[in-house]
Write a structure and sequence with these properties.
alpha/beta; Rossmann fold; 7-stranded mixed beta sheet; about 45% helix; disordered C terminus
Amino acid sequence: MDKIIYIGAGRGRDLPQLLAEEQPAHLLLVEPNPAKASALRARVAAHPEVEVAALAIAPTSGTVQLRCFNFSEVDSLRAPTVLWALYPGLRQQTTLSVPSVTIDELITPLALDPDQANAIVIDAPGEEAAIVDALIEGAHLQAFQAVTLHCGHQPLYDNSEPALKIIKRLEQQGYARVPAPSSGDPDRPVIKLQRDLVALELEQLRTQLAAETNAERERQLEQQAAAHADQLAERERQLEQQAAAHADQLAERDRQLQRQAAELTQVRALLAEVEQERDILSARLASADDEQHNIDAQLQLLRELILPNEPNEPNEPSKLNQPSQPSQPSQPSHRGKSNNPRKPSQRSQRS
């Protein structure tokens, strides 16, 4: 084995087996508990290929709180949930502030070669799923030929995940489960997976098929989008034509209204002139009526002057109704005038 990273090495229970069977060129032991990390350094002093890092692996780097229990194998950064029921005598003894780094910050400086035989052991209670997800997201997982998990069948800590879900994610990345040694704890068994080239190739083919399917689907969607865009463009062109025709109709209607308004203005002007002439004629007619009254009054005055003996009272007896007097014999004229009837005077003719 070329390189092995052991996250959560504890007191080094598996150390002799790893050194004897795997014989790694480089073994990195990561342990957050400072006392355990110091004990590990003492044990591997004679092994230059072994390195000890007193760190916790967390989503962020900095300082985290490590919960320490009377059963130190279950120390965790997370609060226990189901764990309390599995271990009735479990007691939290203390909480330690320990330094932390992300999985990316731990692995990137190692410059792991995917073609080499590298392995990773994850024994970080409650953090298993978060570490595996970080390995996948950071494209570090494929650098390991083998992955070993110490994980519960059910979630034992706050926001942790059961082993089967984590195994499923690793299988999707091309790993297959292989026999593993017993951990001695049925509630937190040891689960070992190895990179399966056939399974990896199959997963790659599935990914490629999915990509091609997605590409074909995208091509169809693009064609549909293009057809829809053409339909929208045609509809927009029709709407523009309709709008132009409607604008022409409105313009013609506006011209008609302007002509009608001009004609109405002319009619109103003519009507005003007619009304003005009517007022003038009315004034003239009133003046003519006044003149007629004056003329009638003058005529009446003239009648009174010309015919002074004309009876004015309607009740005065008419001379025609009076009894006729016997005619007197005409007396001869003493002045020698003619006996012819008297010629009416010009004054009588006027009457």
